[in-house]
Design brief:
globular, 10 strands, D-Maltodextrin-Binding Protein, domain 2, 5-stranded mixed sheet, single chain
Length: about 350
């Protein structure tokens, strides 16, 4: 048997430690996950980052805010590996030849609410429980504030109007303004109604200036449910080249979704760090509605995607000739892996 002296033994032990170092402390893959805003619907991403869910899966994830369509543009230009966007946006992107794929479902409701000035509702006897046609008619001759045209919010407004029997192109006017300006304009009566995503509608309700005409998060327009809204996006070629990274991204986001359901108080505290100045009442209500429509898993629903397309068609986001009969190339469930330790 070969024998080693003390110095040789120390050298062999050191070599073994060095050789095993990657297994002990594997270097993390750095990726950028572009976010179009800081908002309630993205709370699983904030949870995944703060709770180290991505880190446990070998990722170091940056979450820069690149406003609006800029997040998708960052993905397409390869300055980000991932972004988050709505399924309607992805359907429209693919119709225009932009090669992106949804790899994780993230939100299953429309998240849009339409509110009208409280004084107008009271004068017309309009309540949230009134028939759809009566609520839609309350918009005739009015001015409705939205953030931008041809968005999911605008599509919801058009869909509501058409289902209620009025013409969204002729029967009311649009005022394009920021969410904060819309809330202020309702109070000063410079606009008559507002269509916005959570939590801005809840702010207008809680400050007493508006009441609900239609609310996706509260279950209105049930023919659109289930509705696949937000998703984690990537470029197909990136995930084909880096399947482990895409599986880790999807897994960490899914961990954040489950944490939101299982630990609501801790999840709310994590979101509060991103949105510190909102009054507690509207914050709590928007959080509860967001939690209700955030699914416990990332798997996609074909029916939810089909309903998203229907909103796009009725809401004018998609031309009839762009309607898809299948969606297998715009989303995938293949990067859904097992949870660490399972």
């Amino acid at each position: 048997m070969r024998r080693f002296g003390p110095v040789a033994c120390v050298a062999l032990v050191a070599a073994a430690i060095v050789g095993n170092r990657p297994a002990l402390a594997q270097q993390k893959e750095e990726v950028t996950f572009a976010m179009p805003a800081i908002t309630f619907a993205f709370v699983p991403a904030y949870i995944a980052q703060d709770m180290g869910f991505w880190s446990k899966r070998g990722l170091e994830v940056k979450l820069p805010v690149i406003t609006g369509i800029g997040a998708m543009n960052a993905l397409l230009s390869r300055s980000a590996e991932f972004s988050i966007s709505s399924i309607p946006t992805i359907i429209r992107a693919r119709a225009r030849g932009q090669n992106v794929v949804a790899i994780a479902g993230a939100f299953e409701g429309t998240a849009v609410e339409l509110v009208i000035r409280k004084d107008l509702a009271e004068a017309g006897g309009i309540t949230h429980s009134a028939p759809l046609g009566q609520r839609a008619a309350a918009l005739k001759g009015r001015t409705v504030a939205i953030l931008a045209p041809n968005t999911i919010v605008h599509a919801y407004l058009r869909y509501f109007a058409r289902r209620g029997g009025i013409d969204p192109e002729r029967d009311f006017k649009l005022a394009i303004m920021s969410q904060e300006a819309s809330i202020a304009a309702l109070k000063t009566r410079d606009v008559d109604a507002m269509a916005q995503v959570l939590p801005y509608s809840t702010i207008a309700i809680h400050n007493g200036s508006a009441v609900i005409l239609s609310s996706g998060p509260r279950g209105d327009l049930p023919e659109l449910l289930p509705f696949q809204l937000n998703s984690v996006m990537a470029r197909p070629d990136y995930c084909e080249a880096q399947p482990r990274v895409c599986t880790a991204m999807v897994g960490g986001y899914g961990d954040g979704m489950r944490f939101l359901h299982e630990n609501p108080a801790e999840a709310k505290a994590i979101l509060r760090k991103r949105i510190p100045n909102m009054e507690q009442g509207p914050f709590d209500e928007a959080f509860d509605l967001t939690r209700r429509w955030t699914p416990p898993e990332v798997r996609f629903s074909e029916k939810g995607i089909a309903n998203a397309q229907e909103l796009m068609l009725v809401g004018g986001m998609l031309k009839p000739e762009e309607k898809r009969s299948s969606f297998g190339d715009i989303y995938t469930n293949k990067y859904i892996g097992r949870r660490p330790g399972s």
